[in-house]
Automatic annotation (TrEMBL):
Stretches the record annotates as Disordered: 1-21, 237-258
TM regions (residue ranges): 35-62, 82-100, 112-136, 156-177, 198-224
Keywords: Membrane, Transmembrane, Transmembrane helix
Stored InterPro entries: Alpha/beta-hydrolase_catalytic, Alpha/beta-hydrolase_fam, Alpha/beta-hydrolase_N_dom
Domain Alpha/beta-hydrolase catalytic: 292-579
Alpha/beta-hydrolase N-terminal domain location: 61-274
Listed name of the protein: Uncharacterized membrane protein
Pfam families tied to this protein: Abhydrolase_9, Abhydrolase_9_N
Length: 594
């Protein structure tokens, strides 16, 4: 096959010029069914584009941060193949126009061209199949590294077929837009008498504006509204086994200022779960206090300010400012709070705690990350500022230690409350942030300014004097040097795509892919322009679907984080082992992040 004539309008093909006066069956088909011919033209391919498409597809099969099944790999392979095709077609056009046009030996004889086309197609197929086999092996190796189930080579071969369909659809869509530009340019020339030289660029601008408006102003807003409506319905539901708390120390109880039916799906789950005083006493072998959990849902009050007023009034009502520890928890999109992190700090302090959180969206984190990032930061600032303001009114000698905890998008929400590292140290007694997104402003500043010679995947900032980064329990105390209070700790896995995904991956190799890999990333992972961005984007969909200690699944490492930030006096390793055992017995019973 050869590519469609780039100068010809769709549906205006003419009889074969090589045979003047001859009206062939093909010409008759063109005359009678121009749409069919145009539609077939959507599938005709440029052979330079095919070669580049195969190259990009093979790149996409190299390992990424997390194991990928054939479905995700097929989607990513198809997207990258389509991009590679576009790059190849552009390169082929440029080479022809600026290097080959006008050469005495160009074009090549038809037989030579046919041989080259066969070689390109056959070579592309063979390369793709060989890489699929290698890729299946890499996926099994990566799965074994994370104690997960690996794929089979025969099952992974399906990737090729799906990628072909996805690439064909993407290329066809591009050609539809290209032909629409030509159509607009033709009518601009005929109706408005716009010169041909200006009609095509103007057509590009008009179609690009139309497409942008359709996607951002209509499609995305429509999808956002639909998602918001759909998840607001879920927000009104309650997880099986969750019931209204009766203890006055919980929001949603009969004495609460935040009614049960206003807390939302995740809020009801947060206040009704966790260990009570009797269970904490049994676990720790000492009399425990009833833990305080305060929460405000989107329906608790009409405005953010009013919800914050409810929050601090709830803290006053429950006696939270008389506890030993008060933890402010800016949440993820739907208001989810990691149950393991909540139970860990309550176990460590035997219930002498108060946890406070508030919902700011109906949407799950991955949608909120796209549509509500500023809203998340504003919500975190409102919560931290309001609680801190009331906390300051209490006598310094009796008020609780004030900590901030956040996970995933909750770290971005929490960072929104502070302008700098200095502001954190002046405001709270410690911060624990887990799985921070790469877009976090403060995190990015600290990592960028890390001490020379320390890797991006495990940075050291200012000798670890105030803020530290860790990927595991054993890594939290590194470097072995003084760590001042208040402490700031980020926990992040080398394989967590939430931490490492960034639009910069499109055209810039990050330091973490130039350095030796972390403990759970394959050294075979390489950076390729455009391709790596889509690989890590696919990893986001399975970020929490891997075993503890990998990806975006931090398990009981949050316990070690809490002990680094807020350990009670006299705490021992035996205490840690006891609490970890309790946490491991309940992990997975409270539902995943939403």
């Amino acid at each position: 096959m050869t590519d469609v004539d780039e100068t010809q309008d769709p549906g205006t093909a003419q009889p074969d010029a090589a045979q003047p006066g001859v009206w062939s069956r093909t010409d008759e088909l063109v005359a009678r069914h121009p749409f069919v011919v145009w539609a077939w033209g959507l599938l005709r391919l440029d052979f330079t584009g095919i070669a580049f498409a195969a190259l990009f597809f093979c790149w996409s099969l190299t390992p990424s941060l997390l194991p990928r099944d054939w479905l995700f790999q097929g989607l990513i392979g198809g997207i990258n193949a389509a991009i590679g095709y576009g790059v190849g077609a552009a390169v082929g056009w440029a080479v022809y126009r600026y290097l080959l046009a006008g050469r005495s030996w160009w074009p090549l004889p038809p037989r030579v061209v046919q041989v080259l086309e066969i070689v390109v197609v056959a070579g592309s197929i063979v390369a793709a199949v060989v890489m699929l086999v290698y890729s299946a092996g890499w996926q099994r190796e990566l799965a074994a590294l994370m104690d997960a189930e690996g794929t089979t080579t025969s099952g992974y071969i399906r990737t090729g077929g799906l990628s072909l369909l996805v690439a064909a659809a993407a290329i066809s869509l591009w050609r539809v837009l290209r032909d629409l530009v030509r159509l607009v340019a033709r009518y601009l020339n005929r109706w408005l008498k716009v010169p041909r030289q200006a009609a095509f660029p103007l057509g590009v601008v008009l179609v690009a504006f139309l497409a942008y408006t359709l996607v951002t102003g209509v499609l995305l807003n429509g999808l956002y509204s639909i998602a918001n409506s759909a998840f607001s319905l879920q927000n009104n539901s309650t997880r099986d086994g969750v019931t209204e708390p009766l203890n006055p120390e919980r929001s949603g109880s009969p004495e609460s200022l935040a009614p049960w039916d206003t807390l939302g799906f995740e809020g009801r789950n947060f206040v009704s779960r966790g260990l009570d005083a009797a269970q904490l006493s049994a676990a720790n072998g000492a009399p425990a206090m009833e833990p305080i959990r305060v929460y405000a849902g989107l329906e608790t009050a009409a405005t953010t300010e009013a919800r914050m007023d409810v929050v601090v009034d709830e803290l006053e009502r429950t006696g939270a400012f008389d506890r030993n520890v008060l933890v402010v928890i800016p949440t993820t999109g739907t208001g989810w709070v990691n149950p393991t992190a909540a139970e860990a700090i309550e176990l460590v302090h035997n219930g002498d705690t108060a946890l406070v959180a508030a919902q700011y969206s109906y949407l799950p984190s991955w949608i909120s990350f796209i549509a509500d990032r500023q809203k998340a930061a504003d919500a975190g600032k409102a919560l931290v500022d309001k609680v801190h303001e009331r906390w300051l009114t209490k006598p310094p000698e009796t008020r609780p230690k004030l900590y901030v905890y956040g996970e995933s998008l909750g770290t971005q929400s929490g960072e929104g409350a502070f302008d700098s590292l200095g502001a954190i140290r002046e405001t709270v007694d410690g911060v624990l942030w887990v799985g921070p997104p790469n877009a976090n402003v403060l995190w990015h500043q600290l990592v960028t300014r890390r001490d020379p010679g320390t890797p991006e995947v495990a940075p050291v900032y200012a000798d670890g004097l105030v803020v530290r980064f860790a990927d595991s329990a054993a890594d939290i105390s590194q470097p072995p040097s003084p760590w001042l209070h208040p402490r700031v700790l980020y926990i992040q896995h080398p394989s967590d795509p939430v931490v490492w995904w960034s639009p910069d991956l499109l055209f810039q190799r990050p330091d973490w892919l130039s350095e030796p890999p972390g403990y759970d990333r394959l050294p075979q992972m390489r950076w390729f322009p455009v391709v790596t961005f889509w690989q890590v984007s696919a990893d986001l969909a399975n970020a929490a679907g891997v075993p503890d200690g990998h990806g975006h699944n931090y398990g009981t490492t949050v316990l070690d984080g809490w002990l680094a930030i807020a350990a009670p006096d006299g705490w021992t390793q035996a205490d840690t082992d006891r609490v970890r055992g309790v946490l491991e017995s309940v992990v997975g019973t409270q539902g995943p992040e939403k």
